[in-house]
Amino acid sequence: ADVSLFAAVGRDALGAYFRDAVGAEGCVGLDGLVELPDHPTSVCVVLSGASDRGFVSCNRSNAALTARALDQERLRGMHLVHFGGFFNMVGLHGEETVALARELRRAGARLTLDTQFDISGAW
Prior knowledge:
The protein is of the alpha/beta class and 123 residues long. The protein has helices at residues 13-25, 60-64, 72-76, 95-106, and strands at residues 4-10, 29-36, 43-48, 53-58, 80-84, 110-114.
């Protein structure tokens, strides 16, 4: 695939389902998918009403993902790297990710960042 997903799942039924369902589509390479055996797979349930919606989230595997856990050699070969949901991925907050981003830019990659909403209110 021309697109690769770098993400984290737990060693659980939801993680297996995610890997199987996304893999069956065949449009995204899953070589960058990290399995974290000590964390459940993150999930977000959207509750939608007539005029509003709410979210119930478990961010365990997302929060535990670190730059160190990512296949950095494979990332270095990417032309575009998008960090999505950054505020929910607290394991990526810090100098290790900054150093990785700088290295990817030096290698010629374009970087994009979707901060998402900061539920902690720190931003």
